Amino acid sequence: MRIYVPATSSMLARLAEVQVVAASPVTAFAVTPGLRSWYVAGDEEELEFAALSAAARASLRLIDEDLSADRRRVVVVAEVSDADVTVHDDLDRGVVRLTEPVRLLDVVAFHVDLDDAREAIAAASAAILRADLGDDAAQEIVDDAEGFDLAWYATQELPDLLR
């Protein structure tokens, strides 16, 4: 199963060092039955983009907590065994939990904001919790940040991402 793990630059550094994105249990996003039923008209590519977008939003929450992290959203894309994944559409559409850690060997790509998004991402990470609680002004800040596309990086580009 392809999963989208919300992350930060600090988590990428840890991945490079110990070859693990996060210890289990890992919360991530994927194309789940709940996501499929919500996005009925979407093809597979659109469904994967929806899961990626949910992970990018979750990355904002992680950035808000990690003061040492670069102000850029990070999503780690990995292929993992279906047996290691439990779907949690009851929490939110597309949420999954893994019983095993996500290892560098499982990673197929990274999606990371470009430098020009840093200011918007810093503002959005500071506003995300207020947006989650229904603050319209905070939601506008988050929406502005979500207007920036994440760039795709191959796994061998991890050292470049850490510079």
Which descriptors apply to this entry?
single chain, 163 residues, alpha+beta, four-stranded antiparallel beta sheet, three-stranded antiparallel beta sheet, 42% helix, 24% strand
Write a structural description:
The structure is a single chain. The protein is of the alpha+beta class and 163 residues long. The chain has one domain (2-152). The protein has helices at residues 9-18, 33-38, 44-65, 118-132, 136-146, 158-161; strands at residues 2-7, 20-22, 26-29, 74-79, 85-87, 95-98, 102-103, 107-113, 150-153. The strands form three sheets. Strands 1-4-8-9 form a four-stranded antiparallel sheet. A three-stranded antiparallel sheet has the order 3-6-5. Helix 3 packs across helix 4 (118-132) and helix 4 (118-132) packs antiparallel against helix 5 (136-146). The protein is globular, with a radius of gyration of 15 Å.
Individual helix count: 6
Question: Helix and strand succession?
Answer: EHEEHHEEEEEHHEH
The total beta strand count reads: 9
Helix-residue proportion: 40-55%
Uncertain regions: pLDDT < 50 for 5+ in a row?
Answer: none
**Mind describing the biggest β-sheet?**
4 strands, antiparallel
The assigned structural class equals alpha+beta
Tell me the Rg in angstroms: 15 Å
- The whole-number mean of residue pLDDT values reads 95
Shape: globular
Number of domains: 1
Strand content: 15-25%
Query: How far is the first residue's CA from the last residue's CA?
Result: 30 Å
